[in-house]
Amino acid sequence: MNETIFDKILKGEIPSTKIYEDDVVYAFKDINPIAPIHVLVIPKEKIQRFSDFEEQDVVKTGEFIKRVAVVAKELGLNKGYRVIFNNGEEGGQEVEYIHAHIIGGKQLTFPKL
After folding, report:
1. Ordered structural domains, the chain, with CATH
2. Which end of the chain has fewer CB atoms at under 10 Å, N or C?
């Protein structure tokens, strides 16, 4: 697997604005936010795509998803928020490292495709 910007963020080689961190995930502000709150959550164990989770990874997948909810709660998004996973080139994934976008802080509309 090639090294990505997220690998470099985790190693401290590229600065980020940390929102949350534990032994499973690291969450930080998106540098090009599309809403008042736009945070990326990445697992500390690298997985390239959402579709790369294997059946045996069900616990790992669950822990990652659970942490996304923890981060949203830490952000105070009790009125609602959106979680987005872009998967693959046609899905809009720009970095080959799985990451969840937590977007909120305003009334969201569903984009027209």
Report:
1. 5-104 (3.30.428.10)
2. C
